[in-house]
Fold this protein.
Amino acid sequence: MNAEQQRLEEARSRNVPWRKWGPYLSERQWGTVREDYSENGNAWDYFSHDQARSRAYHWGEDGLAGISDDQQRICFALALWNGKDPIIKERLFGLTNSEGNHGEDVKECYYYLDSTPTHSYLKYLYKYPQAAYPYDQLVSTNRQRGRHEFEYELTDTGVFDSNRYFDVFVEYAKESPDDILIQISVHNRGPEAADLHLLPTLWFRNRWSWGRDNTRPFLQAIPVDRPVVRASEPDLGERYLYCDGQPVLLFTENETNAKQLFGGQNPTPFVKDAFNRFLIREQKDAINPKNTGTKAAAHYRLTVPAGRCEMVRLRLTNVGPDASPQKHGKSSVFGKQFDQIFQARQKEADEFYASVIPSSLSSDAGNVMRQALAGMLWSKQFYYFDVNRWLEERGCDPYLPSSKKAPRNDHWHHMYNADVISMPDKWEYPWYAAWDLAFHVLPLSMVDPDFGKQQLDLMLRENYLHPNGQIPAYEWNFGDVNPPVHPWATIFIYRLEKAQTGKGDIAWLERCFQKLLLNFTWWINRKDRSGKNAFEGGFLGLDNIGVFDRSSPLPTGGYLEQADGTAWMALFSLNMLEIAGELATHDATYAPMVLKFVHHFVSIASATIHAGGNIGMWDEEDGFFYDVLQLPNGQAQRLKVRSMVGLLPLCAVTVFEGEFPKKYPEVSERFTSFLKARPELVNFIQDPLQVGCHGRRLGAILNEKKLRRVLEKMLDEKEFLSPYGIRSLSRYHADHPYTTHVGDQEFRVPYLPGESDTGMFGGNSNWRGPIWMPVNALIIRALLQYYAYYGDDFTVECPTGSGRQMNLYQIAEEISRRLTSMFLLGKDGRRPVNGGQKLQEDPLWRDHVLFYEYFHGDNGAGLGANHQTGWTGVLARAMHLFATTTHEQVLELGKMASAVEVNEPLEKASRPARTPAAQDEQLVDK
């Protein structure tokens, strides 16, 4: 094992708390549902960015390039002031949902450059203009722009012209789990010397001002020969922040400035915005002269010469100044040992990623993959929300007869969340989303399988999972419906660990299965209105992809039978079938559950094609799937929108090896008898009894004929196949928008390769043409499953009409290549993901990669949340797969490889076949 792998093993086997401190600080706590106590539930307006510097948060904290402990008791982050801004820069600025012409949007330039899974080393870059930050200009210009216009970004304002900005690199290195070294490097990229006020800040999350009995912690300066802040907190004990050089220590309280915000009285003269008033308004009495409080900063005044760098060093540790010289003596806090530790952690991070990133990748591709994984690890956040208490505090306790109606989540009063969770984006989406999280674990499991398992486990715990079995969606509406991808991620993680270690965590899998049974039952009982296995689901994460708002009552009356909802349930059944089959190899009790989920799958798959004698979702003329609108008068019609909704039935597929029938022949016989008694169920779908390559069988909605027809459209560059992946809506609708009328109202679905022009779902929903990484990942996974069954003899044209035949492995690899090409430097020296930004070719910007929420369907430019490393980070998994496997291996290994589970850092070219013994030796070496 390398050093970082040893730390992971120590955390796993000996509970050494290497993960205790990490980048768990949110990047936006204002404007969140947790902090919203308004009557109408308008979280954005209730707690604004402007208020955040003066108003104490209730449920969490935010900061710039920050860290905290895993319960966010103590927080550390950076604050900056260039001498010109109207406020000091303590947190990232962005537009609210109503201010942005395409919804909420962070207006800052920052990058997650590196992180190990235990956060033994972290690196972050913030680009800070030397001119006054254009807050008003960003707000007013975006407000004037319509939905058909581009967003106005910080790089458009001119504040980075002539390179008049600072590159502020923030690095953390752990000497031990409780000893964190901090290095801040300020590079002046401009042509002249420039001044900067640097304020590394330490503070406590306010846990004492909300009617709780929590003991108030305190910070104080201690009289030693260097600036030191002592932090005393009942649960964590004592910590010390050592500051190199001679900065001035500033102290205040993390308390609301009620006088300024609300005209009330402050319980203390020293409040949250004291540093801002001290520096910018020169109010010297804003700072506590006794050098004590619950928020402290070390004030460094730097003058950085043009083209030069100034460095500031700090150390947050549990070792006090009176410790022995050998531990943290007077000379060793910032002496040679400090530099040695940083160099060692940087080297260890390189060694760790050398074991993860295939050497066959180019240096540029390796850089992209490493930043994707670093972004995943930086996007962890401590998420705290006691919904029952929140409802009580609003006067909305559902058990009190006099309670008010809460604007949201009043049926989720059981929820108590206080965990470190992988976020979609710590500024734009600083709350977990259930289906996002299932994709997060794919790349996270490459570097930290234990954390990936723990994340899946969280959503199934009794304080998350609803008593009725529903998995929570996200805090804006926990009761909204996300696609049921949790079981797919569960069996994926299980098989990955089993492939890597030779032993699966069967106890964990069994625990998950029991809770997923509750969730499956919820779906069956709640989302199959007619009882004919044609499912609804409403939102299902695809936002505005359809004709109507699927979360609201339809203007036509009636309801939708959703091709995606039904396909998700078919995949859910297959995943549960896989899990039950694995459990049955250890416990015969689970053998009948295999048959149960076979029945479910066959029934749901058949309903997708032809729903119980009514009009089905499969359109034989078009060779495609569509939603079906069931009208109140009993009539039904297909809504012929060629979208990702119609491609998802292709993804409901799993290949099965022959082990289970051998061990439980009686179950196999019962299944065969079931199909013979109900032959109509398999008339239109793939026959599950038909044997393919290596004796495998296939659970799939699409038989070979239908698969070819769907692939023909999916691989058509005039329809779904973009130079950069699979579009969410066919380009066919650019010239042929789908329209339908309800009374005198027209509903229209055109192809929009970039941001949407509709106000549906708050105006920032964009599934009408852009490329989305999660569904592309599902398509790649499905193609590999089909390939493991059909083998090399099954080929189709790719692209359609090109005359070039490919097998399904090659098609999966081609889609992955197109997705990856968005992020790689092209021959023109530009990355498509960076779009038309004028800083595309600047090496100080170009090689720092952002992982956006989704991507332009025609040119690959990044769109939406620009740090959505959550599910876009799955790119790292795809890059790894096709750099370390061949189609021969997928065909031979079957389910293992097609589930993206080969994890050997081998050269893809001229790789010799290896015996099982040689593979075991390599695992031992690793």
Remarks:
- The longest strand covers residues 165-176.
